[in-house]
UniProtKB/TrEMBL annotation:
InterPro entries (alphabetical): OMP_Chaperone_SurA, PPIase_dom_sf, PPIase_PpiC, PPIase_PpiC_CS, PPIase_SurA, SurA_N, Trigger_fact/SurA_dom_sf
UniProt name for this protein: Chaperone SurA
E.C. code: 5.2.1.8
Keyword line: Chaperone, Isomerase, Periplasm, Repeat, Rotamase, Signal
Chief location category: periplasm
Entry function: Chaperone involved in the correct folding and assembly of outer membrane proteins. Recognizes specific patterns of aromatic residues and the orientation of their side chains, which are found more frequently in integral outer membrane proteins. May act in both early periplasmic and late outer membrane-associated steps of protein maturation.
Organism: Candidatus Seongchinamella marina
This protein's encoding gene: surA
Lineage: Bacteria, Pseudomonadati, Pseudomonadota, Gammaproteobacteria, Cellvibrionales
Notes concerning its domains: The PPIase activity resides only in the second parvulin domain. The N-terminal region and the C-terminal tail are necessary and sufficient for the chaperone activity of SurA. The PPIase activity is dispensable for SurA to function as a chaperone. The N-terminal region and the C-terminal tail are also required for porin recognition.
Pfam family, one: Rotamase_3
UniProt signal peptide: 1-24
Stretches assigned to the PpiC domain: 175-273, 282-381
Gene3D superfamilies (alphabetical): 3.10.50.40, Porin chaperone SurA, peptide-binding domain (1.10.4030.10)
Reaction(s) the record says it catalyses: [protein]-peptidylproline (omega=180) = [protein]-peptidylproline (omega=0)
Record keyword Isomerase present: yes
Length: 425
């Protein structure tokens, strides 16, 4: 497996097409091939990129474009990378080692390797692990620069979302998806009635076993008087299912199996899993809090003692909202009396959420520490809210955003290339 070539195909978007830059017999000293704003591109850098992408083209087995086209396109890619890296440096885009380690682990996993195996594979192919890390760091910086600049160019209105959801494409996007397994006991249309009855009795008995908890795949593959055909249909939307299954899928809950008769025979239809298309009820909590942060003039113990005293004052009759306005260091909620409004599961940091969940309505919690400091919180109310419509609109919004992103990215890249000072030597 050529790790470098695979990485260039799956991770490094800057590498597209290339071939050898210089003929083998030509030897020259390194020289500047382009000045890009405050940066320069050296001939050695261009040669290295050309070598890499040539390997990528060879690995993919596609036809090699003409040499002059490859050189021009590869240099253009390097120029665009340089412009974007300089933009990132100016606004302080940084990729931490933790983020980079996570990216390296994902790339290793894409190649079916552990991080250690990935490092060894690179070394065996004569590649530097550290060089690869820096290549991926550069790619992540460019991705952030692109997202930061392109996302602000994309505007999607509520009307666009409504119009999209009214289209056939929008309706299909929001359809539920089903993962169906089925097993067919084939019976010819002209089979004697007695044979049909025996087959039906057999599949009915198997259905009873499955309904009692026996695994579907084991039951239909076990030795018996009949052989089944079929398998897993994979994830499919309702419109993509054969009519035989689309008729029963909406009513079949996860883990359940039903028996369907057709001209082909008897089908055991099993709902392995399903997602989307159902009412999304979310348990929300209305809460307010007071936050006190440890600092150079207040130790952690003093911060805890202060919120403990504020809890006692609120329980003794002082208004919680007034105490929050005076003492809370959460600038987003202090002026609102500490009110955080209705919160969804997972919206708050774990320590806060755990305390919120075990605090009864109308009660004030014990002090709890999070990454932000010490909190005391009051649960005002709880409710179950139907978020189905919101989730559907968010799905459509994300779809429309992704559809517009590449178009806007291409336009932005052309713009920054046109605006940049570039001197090709």
């Amino acid at each position: 497996m050529n790790i470098k070539a695979m990485l260039l195909g799956t991770c490094l978007t800057a590498s597209a097409l290339a071939t050898g830059l210089a003929r083998a017999e030509t030897q020259m000293l390194d020289q500047v091939v382009a000045v890009v704003e405050d940066d320069i591109i050296m001939a050695s850098e261009l040669r290295e990129r050309m070598t890499s992408v040539t390997e990528n083209i060879s690995t993919r087995g596609v036809e090699m474009p003409p040499e002059d086209v490859l050189i021009r396109e590869t240099l253009d890619r390097l120029i665009l990378e340089s412009i974007q890296m300089q933009k990132g440096a100016r606004v302080g885009v940084r990729i931490s080692d933790t983020q980079l380690n996570g990216a390296m682990q994902r790339v290793a996993a894409q190649n079916g390797l552990s991080p250690d195996q990935f490092r060894m594979a690179l070394e065996q192919q004569g590649q530097s692990y550290q060089v690869m890390r820096e290549q991926i760091r550069k790619e992540l910086i460019i991705q952030r620069v692109q997202q930061g600049n392109v996302n602000q160019r994309i505007e999607i209105t509520e009307q666009e979302v409504e119009n999209f959801l009214a289209t056939e494409e929008g309706q299909k996007l929001t359809q539920p998806e089903y993962q169906i397994m089925h097993a067919l006991l084939a019976v010819s249309p002209g089979a004697p009635a007695a044979e049909v009855e025996r087959a039906e009795a057999y599949v009915t008995r198997l259905l009873e076993e499955i309904s009692a908890g026996a695994p579907f795949d084991k039951v239909v593959s076990a030795p018996g008087p009949y052989n089944f055909t079929g398998g897993n249909l994979g994830w499919r939307k309702l419109d993509d299912l054969p009519s035989l299954f689309s008729d029963v899928a909406p009513e079949l809950s996860k883990g359940k199996t039903t028996l369907v008769k057709s001209d082909s025979g008897f089908h055991l239809v099993h709902m392995a899993d399903r997602r989307g298309g159902e009412d999304m009820m979310v348990s929300q909590t209305k809460v307010r809090h007071i936050l006190v942060k440890p600092s150079e003039i207040m130790t952690d113990g003093q911060a805890k003692a202060l919120v403990t005293s504020l809890k006692a004052r609120a329980e003794n009759g002082e208004d919680f909202a007034d105490l929050a306005r005076e003492y809370s260091e959460d600038i987003g909620s202090a002026q609102e009396g500490g009110d955080l409004g209705w919160t969804d599961p997972g919206q708050m940091v774990p320590e806060f959420e755990q305390t919120m969940q075990i605090t009864a309505v109308g009660e004030i919690s014990d002090p709890v520490k999070s990454q932000f400091g010490w909190h005391v919180l009051e649960v005002l109310d709880r409710r179950d809210e139907d978020m189905t419509d919101t989730a559907t609109k968010n799905m459509a919004m994300n779809y429309l955003h992704n559809r517009k992103y590449q178009e806007e990215l291409d336009a932005w890249l052309r713009q920054i290339r046109d605006e940049a000072f570039v001197d090709i030597k």
